[in-house]
Amino acid sequence: MDVIKRNNVHVSGDGPATLVFAHGFGCDQSMWRLMAPHFVDRWRIVTFDLVGSGASDLAAYDKAKYASLGGYAQDVLDIVAETATGPVVFVGHSVSAMIGMLADLQAPGTFAAQVMIGPSPCYINDGDYVGGFERGDIDGLLDTLESNYLGWSSSMAPAIMGAPGQPELADELTNSFCRTDPEIAKHFARVTFLSDNRADLARLHTPTLILQCTDDLIAPQAVGEYMRGAMPNATLQLIENTGHCPHLSAPGASRSAMEAFLRQWVR
After folding, report:
1. Closest-CA residue to 185 (of 170, 173, 196, 197)
2. Which of 46, 98, 148, 237 has a CB 3.0–4.6 Å from the CB of 20, allowing a cystine?
């Protein structure tokens, strides 16, 4: 299958290294509009839609392949092989941060660095691990999503976005959720919120920047601190912000943190 069509891949810029931007659950590549253009004069920029999202080829959605995040990770490697030049940095928001990590572990050496925005290796509290949700919370969330996807989208999107001073961003995320095929969204949500990649963190030696908001409903600060402690080569940068999408609600701070990190690891 044509990778470009499957994932609605767009390439811009012509720098000596490549930034690959991957969006989170319920979103599409338009969510990078305040980030990606900032780098286009110095980097090759690759944006795409996860299969089942945005303008990807919905016919390519295979429940068996995408029953785990590994299916999406293979797609990332296909996209990189087709489009990237020079050192490659993967920038993943939310669940795509884990997808990028899995792609890196599947093909060591593919990525020069990783930038993880609001990542979480596991959303469910487990003993001393604070993921932010009890298992019953997640089960209830998934049950609500199954029975009333549009209602779930309308109530959850503003909470996920945060940014109380920018209500237009909550509206944008709500609309993005509502444009997603409900059956695909339900399946992807189950895969996302029940995933547990904590055991993989210690295996990732690629230099990694973890960008975490100080007040994030989905990935609380404790998650970022846990990841920094579990990963051999990770840096945690906190952004003074409310919500799960600092690339939209605090793009200046997010860009600055990325710039400082990239100067260290990519020449």
Report:
1. 173
2. 46
